[in-house]
Specification:
The protein is α/β, with parallel strands linked by helices and 276 residues long. 42% of the residues lie in helices and 23% in strands. The chain folds into two domains: 176 residues, 3-Layer(aba) Sandwich (D-Maltodextrin-Binding Protein, domain 2), CATH 3.40.190.10; 86 residues, Periplasmic binding protein-like II (D-Maltodextrin-Binding Protein, domain 2, 3-Layer(aba) Sandwich). α1 links the parallel β1 and β2. The longest helix has 16 residues. It is globular and about 60 Å long.
Length: 276
């Protein structure tokens, strides 16, 4: 395997890496899984050439690269990133943040201030809704935990939908981020994996119930109807707007523009021929 990439372990990322798992030992790309907050360490230690990491990471560090055309995004609702609150959103005074997250926590702060006029005290915690709400008015849950939670009797804010109401733009939750190791050749494999992922959604959804605790129907709907993987101009506009609001809210000190690495599909030709 020529490259190693780090991915979040959540259902929403599976279509973007499934082809590498299917290729097995022949694959030019090895995938390792970590929660979002631990993925940057893989990149910093040169243990991966690219990481599917929270989009905030691409904005707060200089000299970063992102792979063209691929993201984990949502057009409106996202279902898997939500605030659960014991009180009306306008009355939230304290909130527990999912400490495995980065982008979602920052977005929660922006949404609560911009849309609901509150700036609650925030504390990172392990993603256990009972413990979180025992100590705070509200909590943020992400990924499979965020989608699986029913939130019976609670006020629920879908942060993808809240962002759409605020900006009329899609939200980019994660991107393929790298340094010099994110080459046009690696960007090619990541782009091809995204295209192949569309043909493997049924397989991914069929495998998901055992480790997500959700039904095939839930997983299939989420991947086909909610998740959005192409990153084009509207998605990039959403990412830029997120950077602007992060700066305005003092959540980062400076916003940096990452270099976009375009694929070179000729670099994959020989390998794909060998599979034919």
């Amino acid at each position: 395997m020529k490259y190693t990439v780090g991915s979040v372990p959540y259902l929403n990322a599976k279509p973007l890496v499934r082809i590498f798992e299917d290729w097995g030992d022949q694959s030019p790309v090895k995938v390792v899984y970590e929660i979002p907050s631990k993925l940057p360490t893989l990149l910093a230690k040169n243990q991966a050439q690219a990481i599917m990491v929270s989009s905030i990471e691409s904005l707060r560090h200089p000299n970063k690269r992102i792979a063209e055309g691929v993201c984990i995004g949502s057009q409106q609702e996202v279902l898997s990133v939500r605030i659960f609150s014991k009180v009306h959103p306008e009355k939230i005074q304290s909130i527990a943040l999912d400490r495995s997250s980065m982008t979602s926590n920052a977005l929660a702060k922006i949404v609560l201030k911009e849309r609901h006029g509150v700036d609650p005290i925030a504390h990172p915690m392990l993603p256990n809704i009972s413990d979180m709400l025992a100590e705070h008015d509200a909590c943020v849950l992400i990924g499979d935990n965020g989608m699986r939670e029913q939130g019976e009797g609670l006020h629920i804010l879908d942060l993808g939908l809240e962002w759409y109401y605020l900006t009329d733009l899609p939200f980019v939750w994660a991107v393929w981020l790298g340094d010099e190791g994110l080459t046009p050749e690696l960007a090619t494999w990541l782009a091809l994996a995204e295209l192949a992922g569309h043909t493997r959604i049924e397989q991914v959804a069929a495998d998901a119930p055992g480790h997500t605790g959700m039904s095939f129907e839930q997983c299939d709907y989420y991947l086909r109807r909610i998740m959005h993987y192409p990153m084009r101009e509207r998605e990039l506009a959403g990412l830029r707007e997120f950077g602007k609001l992060l700066l305005e809210h003092g959540l980062i000190e400076e916003v940096f523009t990452p270099t976009i690495v375009s694929p070179d599909f000729s670099s994959a030709a020989n390998f794909l021929k060998s599979l034919a």
